Amino acid sequence: MARSTAESRRKARIKAGFSIYYVIFFIFVYGPMFAMFTLSFQGPRGGVTFPMRGFSFYWWEKLTGPSAVGDLKASLVRSLILAVIVMIITALFSTMLAMAFRKRFRGSGALFYAVMAGLMVPGTLLSLGLATMLRQVGIPPNWWSSGLAVHVVWTLPFGFLVMMAVFNRFDARLEEAARDMGADEWTVFKEITLPLILPGIVAAGLFGFTLSYDEFARTTLLSGAQNTLPLDINASLTQRVQPTLFALGTASTIFSLLMIGMFIVIYTILYRRSH
Amino acid sequence: MTTIESYAKLTDAAAPRGLIGSAPPVATGAEAKRKYRREPGFPVAILIAPATLWLVVFLLLPLISIFIFSFWKSTGHGMTPAFTIENYRAFFVTDGFFDPAKSDFLTPSVFIRTLWLTFRFTITTMAICLILAYPMAYFLSMQVQDFKWQLALFLLVMVPFWTSYLIRAVAWLPMLGRQGLINEFLVGIGAIDEPLSFFLYSEFSYTMALVQLYVVLAVGPIFFSLAKIDRTLLEAARDMGATPFQIFREIIAPLSLPGVAIGMIFIFVAVMGEFATAVVVYGGKASTTGTVILTYYVTGNYPFAAVNAFMLMVAMMMGVVIILRLVDIRKEL
């Protein structure tokens, strides 16, 4: 008995050690963001480092006014539209691909690696390749055309992996039963398959939306004349960095967190309903 | 054929399986043939056509064109089709490389050195990320027993992955510098007497920022492979008197290797192609191959940008192949 309490005390100590490690890790990952958040409330005379010189909403107000970088509101709208389109295409393509991968077909290995390549090829290379290609052909790049193209290449593998995992745990007998009762393919999909995989589609969409909304490297050379929000943030870095940038960063991060939270809530509701 | 016989045939063990999950059994026999003229489900060709086309045009073609353009001739503000290896020569060797009288005799070109520097930063980042991420993944998968807590703590660590990494790089600005938070903190606790200058625009700060930005890419895959380990294996080993260290070395470590490899590949390709953090945190003081590529693109020397990009691609492929040689990740996919 004495031995087992010594053993459990040792286990408790290990667990406590790991918990402390978790907290340190948490501070490391989130610390800089908290510093940025705090400094966005810098007084009007304050700079981009501590100490705080007073507390004000000065830099947040500057954010909504006309800025040196460009029209932030317009680029935010562009980023949002792009993110929604990417979300829809990612959800659609990854569902279709994963459905195809439930069967054997020629070239499935090659296609699998092609999808995964989108995750592996750095944005710099993709951006450079497509930009020079378009330049040579004489097609001007635009955020809604070439920008959209590379965003989907980047988000598709994430959505695809999510949908693969969904179909991995999918009971095909349900569809089989419906077919036996004479349902055609569309009815089977609409009535059986879709309701069951809907939470997965939402998760795939989350990857599409957030990864596109934040994407910077892939859009650098491909957004054309009009900037998306990450590009505007990058542009403001080339000028003298002011706390406005921190306000912008904080606002954008809070928005991202809200979106993630919303997706998780929708996912949970759909998941509960489908099970 | 009776119903039972045909059912037995339908659920035959030899029924074809898809790449994932179990494909519905293919019906045989005359009556079944009438019912399914083809495999059930939508036709594969229609399902894969849009994505395949998209990937060919927007992924494959751009990569091939990088290779092709790397042989073209730069005209100052554009390029013309040609087949010259001049761009590659300029990438590899300096002017006086073969001339013993020159000062740069046998010195590798600045582009080779940049690629090497990029590689060094990447390897350092990978090593530190692994050291930080493994205990984190281990804690979440092995020590946290309650599923809800596990999920919550895991999501909390992973959330930064879904936020802008550019903004997270910007967030490093108040931390670094002579008046940065790190210096203030170290002076505050009395660890150092006066602020150190190596916390801004230095290799140290750049590496630290890279680790902070990319460490979650390693936590995810390692967590998943650890969580998949069959707990009865550990139980059995414990019953046979294995020490915790033995259990780790013989069971946990080998079984988590695929996750480690996937995480390391993620970080490897991300940091090799990295350029924004270098600008923000490193102050553009030193170049990475990523920044070199952009610089040559902006100045209009597309073929030379393509050469750098192609060499980066080669270096990355070599790295990924080496990792895949060391660890078999197919089980994980």
As residue ranges, the low-confidence spans of chain B are 1-19, 31-37
Estimate what percentage of residues of chain B fall within beta strands. Answer: under 5%
The number of helices of chain A is 10
Main pleated sheet of chain A: none
**Could you say which overall geometry of chain B the principal axes of the C-alpha atoms support?**
globular
- Across the major sheet of chain B, the strand order is 1-2
Low-pLDDT ranges of chain A: none
Count of DSSP E strands of chain A? Answer: 0
- Computed CA radius of gyration of chain A, to the nearest angstrom: 24 Å
Can you give keywords for this protein?
heterodimer; A: 275 residues; MetI-like fold; 76% helix; globular; B: 333 residues; mainly alpha; 2 domains; two-stranded antiparallel sheet; disordered N terminus
